[in-house]
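JOB MANIFEST
job_type = single_chain_structure
chain_count = 1
residues = 67
[input]
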Amino acid sequence: MGFMDKAEDMAGKHDEKVDQGVEQGGDYVDDKTGGQHSEQVDKAQVFANDRADQLGGVEDEGDDEKS
């Protein structure tokens, strides 16, 4: 099993943890930049979550919009 196979397996099994990590990372960036780039951070979070879902074979749940 190669690296990408392991990454796909982990992303599929731990989708919620990946999503939480992306959210926490975005919150950290927002905090450190005083929210100056929150729109871009939100877009990056959606992109990262979508890519992780694709990698892990997780179906789209329709929660792409950030509130």
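[summary]
The radius of gyration is 13 Å.
The chain has one domain: 3-7+15-56.
exit_status = 0
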